[in-house]
Amino acid sequence: MYKILSFLGLFIILNTFAQENLLDTSYGVNNGSTNFAFYNGSQMSGGLNIQATTKLPDGKVLAVGVNFIARFTSNGVLDTSFFNGTGYKLFSQKNYGRIKPAGDGNYIIMDIGFGGIQKIDENGNFISSFNPYTQSASYADIDIDQNGRIYLLKYTTSNSGSDYSLVRLLPDGTQDSSFGNGGTLALGFTYRYIKVIVKNNNEIFIAGQKIVAVSDQRIVVTKLQSDGSFDSSFGTAGTFLYSVGQNVDGSAHLMFLNNGKIIGFTSGSICNGNNCFGLISYRLNANGTLDTTFKNTGISVTPVQSDSTPVKVLRLPDNTFMISGTGWYNTYALKMDEDGNLDNSFGLNGKIITPQMLNTFVYNAGFELYGNSIVLFGVYSIWYGAQTQYVGTARKYFFNASSLKTSEVKLESAKLYPNPTQDFLYIMSGEKILSYDIYDLNGRKIMHSKAQLPEGKIDVGSLFSGVYFIGLQTEKGKSVSKFTKK
Questions:
Q1: How confident is residue 273, by pLDDT bands cut at 50, 70 and 90?
Q2: Helix/strand/coil for 245
Q3: pLDDT bucket at 2, cuts 50 / 70 / 90
Q4: How far apart are CA 87 and CA 73, in angstroms?
C-alpha cells in the first residue's frame, strides 16, 4: 500500500510540474505569478487576503478581501495609479467577500463577516449617492439583475440554527418594498442557502444544502418568482431536494442552459468507494426534476483532488463552463461541457492544478480570463506572530500548449552581480537594455528609468534591505530577474 501511495504522490507531482509548462512567464514579477505580501524586514508577515475579483473593461482587476480594496494591472502587479501609488486601500473590521458590476459602471461589494453592502467606483471610492445597507447579520451572497436591483442573501444564527432571508435593494441601496415583506423574504431554518442567481427574466434561484446530519448533507435548489413568491411548478412546492447517498459541502453554483435545463456544481461525495469524492455536477430539467440523461443518473463526480470545492463558474461563448476551486494545498481550474465531460485539450487531461504551496492551506478566490489564458487568484497561509496570516497570490496559465505565444521571443534572465548587492547592481545582457523597472515583493514599482544603461549598472544604494524584482526591456522583449539588497 505504501508503494502505491508513493507512486500516486509522484504521479500527482509530475502532473503538476507538467502543467507548469503552461505558465505565462511574462506575467507577474515571478515568471508567471505574483505574491501580494507584506514584510517585516525580510520576513513575510502576511499580505492581501484576496476573497473576490472582477475584471475591469481595460483589463485591470479590482479585488476585495479582508480589510482591503486593491487594483491589479492586467500583468499581475499592484496598480500604482490606484490610491496614492500603493495599489490598495486598507480598512479595519471589514471582510469584503463579493464584488460584482452594478451595471452603471460601478461595483457592489459585500462585507461577509461584519455586514454591509456598498457601491464603489473603479478607483475604490465609495459612491455617495448609494445608501449602504448595514443591517447586522452574516452575508452569504449577492447578485444583481438587469435593472440594477441587488439581491442579498443573509442569515442570523441562534440556538435554533441559521435563519435565512433574501433582501432586494433598489439601485440606490434602499429596500424594494414590492419584494417579499417590505423588501425582505423570510426563508427560514430548513435549508442552508449559499448562492443566489437572478436570470434575465427576473426568475430567482437560491441554492445550498439541507443538513440532516454530519455525514448527510443534501443538494437544495429553490426557485422564486420575481416578486419573491415560491414557484410551485418547480420541484416540490418550489424546491428540488436530492437525497440519495450524498455528503455535499458548503458551495453551490448554477448555470442555465439554452434548452431551459440547469447545471449545478458543488463538491463532496455521492457514493462509497473509489472515485466518489470530488467536484459534483448535476443537471435539472426546467421543472426542477433531476435530468437522468445527464451521466445516466443525473449526477456525477469528477475527482480533482481530496478537496474540490468550486469557487467560480463562468459560461464561455462555446457553451462550455470554466470552473475554478480549492484543491488540496493548491487551486485548480477545469473546462467542462453541458454533458459533464472534461475538455481534454485544456490544461493536462482537462485540468490545471497549481503546485503545492509551502505545505500550507491554499484557497481559490476565483479567476479572470484573458483570451486563451486564465489567471487564478487566491491566498495561501503562513505562520507569523503566533497566528495564521494569509498572502494573496495570482498565477497565469495558457489553456493549452497550442495557445502559447510561440511567436514571442523568450528571453533568458539577465545576469546580475554582485547579488546580494549593497550599492550598485551590474547587469550583463546579450541585448541592449532600453529601460528598466524595479518592484518590491508587494509588486509596487519603486524605480523606473527609460534611459539606456551604457555602463551596465544601476545605483540601488537608496533601497531598503530586502528582495526585489527587476524588469528589463530590450529590443527583443522583456525579462524579469530577482536580486537582494543588503
A1: low
A2: coil
A3: very low
A4: 9
What does the DSSP 8-state code read for residue 413?
P
CATH architecture of the domain with residue range 415-485: Sandwich (2.60)
What is the C-alpha separation between 140 and 152, in angstroms, rounded?
Answer: 8
Which residue intervals of the chain bear CATH 2.60.40.1930? Answer: 415-485
β partners of residue 381:
390
Rounded to two decimals, the pTM is 0.82
Output the pLDDT for position 10.
35
Measured in residues, the chain has a length of 486
Q: Do 475 and 429 touch, CB atoms closer than 8 A?
A: no
**Residue 22 to residue 385: CA distance in whole angstroms:** 36
**Which three cell numbers mark 167?**
433582501
- Res. 468 pLDDT band, cuts 50 70 90: confident
User: What is the distance of C-alpha 215 from the center of its chain?
Assistant: 28
What's the CA gap between 255 and 165, in Å, rounded? 22
User: What grid cell was written down for 242?
Assistant: 436530492
The three three-digit cell numbers of residue 188, written as one number: 427560514
State pLDDT tens for residues 297-319.
Answer: 999 999 887 678 999 999 998 88
Residues contacting residue 371 through CB under 8 Å, at least 6 positions apart: 403
Domain 2-403 belongs to what topology?
Methylamine Dehydrogenase; Chain H (2.130.10)
